Fold this protein.
Amino acid sequence: RGEARGEANREKSEGEADSWERNLKDTSELNSSDFDNLTDKGTVKVNQAGSDRPPTNDPNSFLRTENGEHVFVYDDNGDLIYDISSSRVKGFKINTNPAGKKFLSPYKLDGPVPQFILDLFGW
């Protein structure tokens, strides 16, 4: 279900067999195998709004906020792809200006946080 559509939206890194899928609409579209090999890179302190979250990190990694309420997930290019809490998943669209600078645009995915994510991050 949805694989053909998903393949069209899939951004793949050079030489990568599997890749994170951006611009999903619903949490039911999240691929659990993308989360299987994430590396825990520790904690990060962010402001209350989370607007100063790191836009990049090591590829296929995650950071937790100091209070443990949010997890920032980074794709195989090291770009922020998800901001996850126990109650919602925010995705990030990447817009690139003519000079090549990337800008992240957050949006909320429809649907509940999948159980595999709640289990993975201990919620």
